[in-house]
Amino acid sequence: MKLSARNQLPGKVKALNVGVVTAEVVVELDGGGELVAVITKKSVENLGLAVGKKVYAVVKSTEVMVAVD
């Protein structure tokens, strides 16, 4: 699969918190760190997501904000 998004971060599913309609997916990135995504429960089922499964976190955005204290 090829995508136009430049930010394709490989990792594995660390945790799933599936609700009635949506699910929180915690991805442990191969380069270190974690990323959390909220997707539909149906998407979790369609992708066959489970803890330990290899995934890509794909980020496509027109803006990235940076903040400091």
Helix content: 10-25%
Mean pLDDT: 93
Quickly give the CATH architecture: Beta Barrel
The rounded Rg comes to: 13 Å
Order of helices and strands: EEEHE
Class by alpha and beta content: mainly beta
CATH class designation: Mainly Beta
CATH topology value: OB fold (Dihydrolipoamide Acetyltransferase, E2P)
**Care to count the β-strands?**
4
Question: How would you classify the quaternary structure?
Answer: single chain
| Structure annotation, total helices | 1
Main sheet: strands, sense, barrel: 4 strands, antiparallel
Count of distinct structural domains = 1
Strands side by side in the biggest sheet: 3-2-1-4
Shape: globular
Q: In terms of per-residue confidence, which ranges show pLDDT below 50 for 5 or more consecutive residues?
A: none
State the end-to-end CA separation: 40 Å
Percent strand equals over 45%
Q: Mind telling me the CATH superfamily name? A: RNA polymerase II/Efflux pump adaptor protein, barrel-sandwich hybrid domain
Subcellular location: Cell membrane
GO cellular component, one term: plasma membrane
Organism: Methanoculleus submarinus
Keywords: Molybdenum
